[in-house]
Design brief:
The chain is built from six helices and nine strands, in the order αββαββαβαβαβαββ. Bound molecules: S-adenosylmethionine. S-adenosylmethionine binds next to helix 2. InterPro entries: Methyltransf_16, SAM-dependent_MTases_sf.
Amino acid sequence: MEKVFEEIKKRRKPNFSSCEKIVSFGREFSICSDNSGGVAGSIWNSAFEIISYLEERGFDPNVPILDLGSGTGVMLSLSAQARLCVLSDLPEAEPLIQHNIILNHVEARCCFAPLRWGWAGASACPITSYGPAGPCDLHELLPFALVIVSDCLYKSAAYSDLACTLAAVTRPGSEVIFAYSVRIQREHEFLDSLTREGSLPRFEVRLRRVHKDRFLVVLRRMS
Ligand SMILES: C[S@@+](CC[C@H](N)C(=O)[O-])C[C@H]1O[C@@H](n2cnc3c(N)ncnc32)[C@H](O)[C@@H]1O
């Protein structure tokens, strides 16, 4: 499987284009886009909602953060506060995320971990990571107390895989900070599946509309 990932990465020619300045916890970061990178190549608006929410509310800097579906790796900006940010996505997202990590000199606090939701569709949803050992060894860091998911509800076919991964990376008491823009009118189905009586694990959901069609959701794992 690692060979397949290497092939995908070789086929894609990154084209890092404009870089956006963003401020998080009082520090300025530069996040470059990749206009050949599809959905993973640019910053999505929900990311800013999550950063603002965490700036306002604060969080324990000693708690490692896992970001699912990192795209550009914009959540590396949380390293202004967090000791360790694990940025995860499909393997082909790695070049842009690594580029942004290096550009912002946050190698000591941020790392990329390839993580495909619902890996192999197995019901046990094993976490498979072939990233470098060290801070990005997901197996050593699991379970995470704080998980970020920004704008990852745009394809309903992935909902069960994403739910499976959320279950695999959290423990009872973990918090998941979610934000999404309504694009396919089915986003509520994902949240319903996490809160349904009898669902395992079950999450408590606090939902706040932050824009006409954008929501910030704080999930707490109950079981
Ligand atoms: C809309 S982008 C959001 C990127 C980033 N979170 C943001 O808010 O700027 C969705 C991200 O989810 C990733 N993604 C999609 N399907 C995935 C899967 N099955 N496993 C892991 N990541 C996936 C994409 O590669 C992309 O980076």
